[in-house]
Structures are given as structure tokens and as C-alpha cells.
Design a protein that fits this description.
- Belongs to the hyi family.
- Keywords: Isomerase, Pyruvate.
- One of its GO terms (molecular function) is hydroxypyruvate isomerase activity.
- This is Hydroxypyruvate isomerase.
- There is one protein chain.
- The protein is of the alpha/beta class and 267 residues long.
- It has a single domain, classed as TIM Barrel, CATH 3.20.20.150.
- It is built from ten helices and eight strands.
- An eight-stranded parallel β-barrel has the order 1-2-3-4-5-6-7-8, surrounded by five helices.
- α3 packs parallel to α4 and α7 packs parallel to α8.
- The longest helix has 21 residues.
- The protein is globular.
- The N and C termini lie close together (10 Å).
- 42% of the residues are buried.
- The mean pLDDT is 98.
Length: 267
């Protein structure tokens, strides 16, 4: 069975954020991820990790002004200074949380923007980020995200993400392979697991049911089968990454909603 990490932004949302660490540990999780830690002091998060015997395996670099609709800065010409500042802040948090990897969001493609200019900016920013992260012993991840959930997002396909990683050829720049987003955009998920995991370019994986983005026990993806595929391929190629549970509990934010929905993991 894959190693599962609880996404504390989406799970246990009946609790205050800092109380979600204990809830995840009580349900048997050994690792956690979340979107953005920046509303909390890094030292407070580190204490929750330590007190609950948890490992932080992933979080996102600051995405710009999220409330105003920004979804990352990496592809945006003219925002290079803000991008570098955001990466430096993420690296500070990663150091305190002992987190090995940071997801860098690409951003939304501005209407009418030249695609080649966006890609050139994206690659230049990623090269800088990978170099800065390497000096700190961290990995940088890029994630294809579907445009149904995030209209206009610059990076959408697995092949495009892997082409960028190959082109930049930085050992610590890898792909965040989200099975939910892959199914929405491309499908053929099991074949893509078999193809991409052995390349060494996948740094982290995530999952949710499709199309509802609930627990991985329903919808159009057969996760029992996919878990078996992941076990088979991981054992063959030596992949030892985490599979993040980035889904919305079917029962919502009521008390016990996440815990009651973990039958798929306990089984």
C-alpha cells in the first residue's frame, strides 16, 4: 500500500488548523501536507509536527495575492522579484518544518499574453528556484492542474511538466503528479503511472475521487486498482514518495467527517 499523507488544508476542517495535526496522527497518518502555512508561525507548526510524531512532506510557495485571484507567480513576466521573495519565504518555512519539497505554482496565463514569453519566464524562474532550493537541500515541484477547477492555469498536462523538468535538467526539480487532475485533463492514469514513475522525475503524488473530489472510494477512478499499480511500479523502480490525500470529505465539515471517511485506508 502507498504511504499516505493527510492534506490538512482539506481534511479535518471541523478543527482549527493547528488542531488538525493531532487529529491526523490519531487516525494513523505519519505525514502531512497543506497548501499554505504562512498564516501560522513556522515554529508553531514545527511544534505540532514534533508533538504528534508527524513529518511535513509538502507545502506550496506563496502564490501571490490569493484573495485577488492570483494562483502563482512563476509564469508572469514582470513579477520576477515578487517570485523570488516568495521562494525565499518558502525556503525559510521549509527549513523550520524540515520539509523536503516545495510546490511552486505556475500562475494563471493573462488573457492575450504571448505563450512563448510566459514559458520563458516560467523556465527562468524555475531555474532560479531550483538553484536556491538546492543550496538549502530542498526539491522544487511543479504540478499540472486542470482548468475546470482552476481556469487559465498555465500548466495542465503531465507531458508538458515532464518536458520542462527534462529541459531544465536540475536534479531537484520534479513533477507533482496529482491523479485527480490527470484524470480530469487526460485520463489513462494507470499507464501514466507506469510511464512516469520510473523516470525519477516524480517527486510527490496526490489523489481524490473524480469528479466530486471526495474520498478515493467512488467515482470514475478505481483506486484499489491504482494502489496496486503504484505498489507494483514503486517496488520495481524504487520510488519511495508520498501520496497526498488532497480531497474534500464527503460529509463536509461536521465533527468526525474525515475520520468516518477513512474506510478506504483502513481496509
Amino acid at each position: 500500500m502507498p504511504r499516505f499523507a493527510a492534506n490538512l488544508t482539506m481534511l479535518y476542517n471541523e478543527h482549527n488548523f493547528l488542531d488538525r495535526f493531532a487529529a491526523a496522527a490519531q487516525d494513523g497518518f505519519c505525514a502531512v501536507e497543506f497548501l499554505f502555512p504562512y498564516e501560522q508561525a513556522a515554529k508553531d507548526l514545527a511544534l505540532r509536527l514534533q508533538d504528534n510524531g508527524l513529518q511535513q512532506v509538502l507545502f506550496n510557495a506563496p502564490p501571490g495575492d490569493w484573495a485577488a485571484g492570483e494562483r502563482g507567480l512563476a509564469c508572469l513576466p514582470g513579477r520576477e522579484a515578487a517570485f523570488r521573495d516568495s521562494m525565499e519565504r518558502a525556503l525559510d518555512y521549509a527549513h523550520t518544518l524540515q520539509c523536503p519539497r516545495i510546490h511552486v505554482m505556475a500562475g494563471l496565463a493573462p488573457a492575450g499574453a504571448d505563450a512563448s514569453a510566459l514559458r520563458a519566464t516560467y523556465l527562468a524562474n524555475l531555474a532560479w528556484a531550483a538553484n536556491a532550493a538546492a543550496a538549502a537541500g530542498r526539491e522544487v515541484l511543479i504540478e499540472p492542474i486542470n482548468q475546470r477547477d482552476m481556469p487559465g492555469y498555465f500548466l495542465n498536462r503531465q507531458d508538458a511538466a515532464h518536458a520542462i523538468v527534462q529541459e531544465l535538467n536540475a536534479p531537484n526539480l520534479k513533477v507533482q503528479f496529482d491523479l485527480y487532475h490527470c484524470q480530469v485533463v487526460e485520463g489513462d492514469v494507470a499507464t501514466k503511472i507506469r510511464h512516469y514513475l520510473p523516470t525519477g522525475r516524480v517527486g510527490h503524488m496526490q489523489m481524490a475521487s473524480v469528479p466530486e473530489r471526495h474520498e478515493p472510494d467512488g467515482g470514475e477512478l478505481n483506486y484499489s486498482y491504482l494502489f496496486a499499480v503504484l505498489d507494483e511500479v514503486s517496488q520495481a523502480c524504487g520510488w519511495e514518495g508520498w501520496l497526498g490525500c488532497e480531497y474534500r470529505p464527503r460529509l463536509g465539515a461536521v465533527a468526525g467527517a474525515t475520520s468516518q471517511g477513512l474506510g478506504w485506508m483502513r481496509g
